[in-house]
């Protein structure tokens, strides 16, 4: 591509909300035939709401909510932030805060060790059949469950529900028209992942992904000859954003770590602009010959 064509394309991309951080990112994007999407914060708004708090112990629902919100107080994850925001009351200071990527958090609150997260964080904790059934009902609706353990006792769980971005479905359809294949890579559970994928018309889905799993799926595609574009917002997406031929970070909801790892930042999170960017990059390469 001539410098003039590249400058013009970068200018156009900027008008559509894309901050091109690497000079050759658009030239690389022109070769992309697969896009791997993160779910939470990327295809969804990433600001879930707490829809239920349930106790399975002697702890009341209020106590469970309060312990969980206190433990999540320093969390940067959309789920942690949602629990704190929806709880809406004063939290108790916590100690020994520890974040486990793709799992949840552990912290000491009122002298008790509190864990809030998914099943991976609950290693060694027994989940009864009744509980699994009750939780399954929520999971089938596409909700996410955060289990709360207090001093090794499974106290209860918090149900959260996120909303798909209004633009996501049309955006995925538009990608199909320019022969770019979408894939969903998410750290969330299989039910939530599949519910959202089928709503959006994405047929290739990988759930329960740790950061290195996202990276490995992208590596496999690239070994198979695909040029992959990854789009995500979280700290957990950073390795995948680096590994992909082109990485795009959500610049609004996204964490700084994701933006730093990416070649392009989508400043206002307007994901509907993605097909335009791909077409633009392809046009840029054809006009130059
Ligand atoms: P995604 O790929 O959908 O953005 P993440 O990898 O960030 O998801 O997180 C994967 C899963 O890890 C979440 O769906 C949630 O179950 C759990 N998780 C991560 N951080 C937290 C947290 N602070 N509190 C509760 N659960 C968490
Ligand atoms: Mg995310």
UniProtKB/TrEMBL annotation:
The chain holds residues 280 to 568 of 619 of the full protein. Belongs to the cation transport ATPase (P-type) (TC 3.A.3) family. Type IB subfamily. This is Cd(2+)-exporting ATPase. Signal peptide: none annotated. It comes from the Bacteria. It is found in: Cell membrane.
